[in-house]
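Quiz preparation item.
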């Protein structure tokens, strides 16, 4: 197998949402990936020279310390729906790969009621019991806010509650520090990033496509969005395109 096209000193963060088959009528089918395809992508990356890392590795990554691994790669999952426990966890466990799940803290044990389309609001969100079990098996949790809003559309006084209260709630329920955040819909700006930093986060992920280097803004980390229609040939082409995108900022 040819080696990955990615430079050895860049961090690739992959963005997934749901694992499994989308329910009939599910309008956001692109946010689902079949388990067999997730496994195939993990195996391809490993064979192509990527090293899977966890959230702690990311938080310790510094411009003053070159990567101690080659092509560090982090799996991230947004929303925290229950299909991750049922479909993704067995694959992560068998492949011995860590991941970060960004969960909508105000909906834990409930449903995806934040979805604007009523037909999308019935999907179960992870329970505390499922999250604790996943945590024991190498899955870390970050915040995806309390209610999954478009943060720039909210009054500024609500940003703190969405960011700080979700962090507090997750830390109380999981008894672990929660230091990473993913902005809902990828929407944020510099003032929101400053509030996230003031709330105690150490890194935040956007949906800006691209790779990360040690000097990438830790509150505007880039990710590669992996959609349902990502068979390996397309997946490899998307990786190659990542090398042509900016890495600073």
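Solution:
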């Amino acid at each position: 197998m040819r080696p990955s096209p990615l430079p050895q000193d860049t961090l690739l963060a992959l963005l997934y949402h749901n694992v499994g088959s989308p329910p009939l009528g599910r309008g956001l089918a692109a946010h689902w990936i079949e388990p067999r395809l997730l496994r195939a992508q993990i195996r391809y990356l490993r064979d192509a020279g990527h090293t899977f890392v966890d959230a702690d590795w990311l938080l310790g990554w510094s411009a003053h310390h070159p990567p101690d691994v080659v092509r560090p790669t982090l799996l991230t999952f947004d929303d925290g729906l229950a299909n991750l426990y049922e479909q993704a966890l067995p694959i992560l466990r068998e492949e011995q790969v860590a991941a970060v799940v960004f969960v909508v803290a105000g909906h834990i044990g409930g449903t995806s009621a934040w979805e604007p389309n009523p037909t999308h609001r019935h999907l179960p969100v992870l329970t505390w019991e499922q999250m604790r079990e996943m945590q024991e098996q190498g899955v870390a949790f970050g915040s995806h806010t309390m209610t999954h809003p478009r943060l720039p559309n909210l009054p500024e006084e609500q940003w703190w509650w969405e960011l700080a209260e979700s962090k507090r709630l997750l830390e109380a329920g999981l008894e672990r520090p929660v230091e990473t955040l993913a902005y809902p819909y990828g929407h944020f700006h510099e003032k929101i990033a400053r509030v996230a930093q003031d709330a105690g986060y150490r890194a935040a992920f956007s949906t800006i496509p691209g790779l990360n280097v040690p000097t990438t803004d830790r509150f505007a980390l880039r990710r590669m969005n992996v959609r349902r229609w990502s068979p390996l040939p397309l997946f490899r082409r998307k990786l190659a395109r990542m090398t042509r995108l900016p890495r600073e900022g």
